[in-house]
Amino acid sequence: MELLDAARRGDQAAFERLVAAYRRELTAHCYRMLGSFHDAEDAVQESLLSVWRAIPRFEGRSSLRTWLYRICTNACLRLDTKRPKRLRSPDHGPPRHDTADLGEPVLGPVWLEPWPDDIASDEAGPAASYERRESVELAFVAALQHLPAFQRAVLILREVLEYSAADVAALLDTTPAAVNSALQRARKGAADRMPARSQQAELATLGPGGQRDLVDALVTAWERADVDAVVALLADDVRFTMPPLPAWFDGRDDVTRFLAERVFAIAWRLVPIAVAKAPATVGTKPAAPGEQPGTVNGQPALASYQQQPDGRFLIGAILVLSVRDGRITELASFLDPELYPRFGLPHELPAEKSGRER
Hints:
InterPro entries: NTF2-like_dom_sf, RNA_pol_sigma-70-like, RNA_pol_sigma-70_dom, RNA_pol_sigma-G_actinobac, RNA_pol_sigma70_r2, RNA_pol_sigma70_r4_t2, RNA_pol_sigma_r2, RNA_pol_sigma_r3/r4-like
GO molecular function, one term: DNA binding
Number of helices: 12
Radius of gyration: 21 Å
Strand content: 15-25%
Distance between the termini: 61 Å
Oligomer: single chain
Family: Belongs to the sigma-70 factor family. ECF subfamily.
CATH class of the largest domain: Alpha Beta
Shape: globular
Keywords: Sigma factor, Transcription, Transcription regulation
CATH architecture of the largest domain: Roll
Structural class: alpha+beta
Helix content: 40-55%
Number of strands: 9
Order of helices and strands: HHHHHHHHHHHEEHEEEEEEE
Largest sheet: 9 strands, mixed
CATH topology of the largest domain: Nuclear Transport Factor 2, Chain: A
Subunit structure: Interacts transiently with the RNA polymerase catalytic core formed by RpoA, RpoB, RpoC and RpoZ (2 alpha, 1 beta, 1 beta' and 1 omega subunit) to form the RNA polymerase holoenzyme that can initiate transcription.
C-alpha cells in the first residue's frame, strides 16, 4: 500500500517499483494478444503511460493487477486495428519445392515472433499462470492470431489468466453472456488450428533426458552436415520455415533436399539456448555443455551460428523445434537480425572447428 499511495501522490520512483512486478506478465499477455514481442512491449509501454496518468484516480474497486490487465487488453485491442495480424509461413503462402528460390525477405510487421522464455516459466502456482508454457507455444499463439480480437482477448483472460466470466465482462465493458458466447466460438476456432497434443505434453512424454538426447543428436548431426542423421530425427510431415524469407518446405523429402542443397553448403555451430537464471534478465543465453537446454516459446531452441569466410561464426538464426512422438515436426528458423539482441545471444562465437571439421 505504501508504494501505491506514493505513486498516487506523483512519486515516479515508487510508481516504477510498483509496476515492475507486473511488467513481465503484462508483456506476456500482450504477446499472446499481438503475436509479436516488439508489439507487446509497445502495448505495455503505452499502457503504463496511461496508468501513470490515471493512478491518482485509482480507487481500488478492483485489484491493481486486474486494473493493469484491463488497460493493457484495451491497448492491444486498439493496436490490433492498426497493425496487420502476425502470420506463420504456412499462412503466408504455399510450400516451395525449388531450393534455389527462397524469395526476397518479406519485411515489416508480418511474421509471428518468438517469445524469450525466462525462469518465471518454471515457477509453480497461480502467480506464474500468466506464462504457463502451453500459453506461449508457437502453435497456440499462432492460432490466437486467427481469432477476432475480442474472442482472442476473452479466450486469454478466461483460460490462461483464469478470470471469471463476470470479471472478464467488467474488463471488456460487456456482459457475462457475451463473454461466454465469445469463449465458445474462440475455443472452437483455436482448436481447429491446434495439434492434438500440446508441446508440453509431448516434451513430458520424452522426459528431460529424452529432450536432451534429441537436441544433442540434432546438434551433432547438424554440425557434421550429416543429412541422413538429421533426417532420422524428423517426422514424415516435418516443416522447415524461415521468416522473413517467404519460402518454407513441407514434408521429409523436400526438407531433406533443402538441408542437403542449401543449409549444409556452409558450416554451422548450434548452441542450445538455456533459460536465463538472473531474475533481472529477460532474455536467454547459450547453454553450457551438458546443461539441460532451455526453451523459446516453451519449446526446445538453439542459436544457429553460420561460419564466415574468415572462420568466424556469426549468429544466423534462432531455431525453435516442435516435436511429436519423439521426432521433430517443425524446424522454425527465425532469421530476423533484430530478434537476436532480445534473446541476449552473442553476435559471434569463437572461430573453433565445426563438427564437420573435427
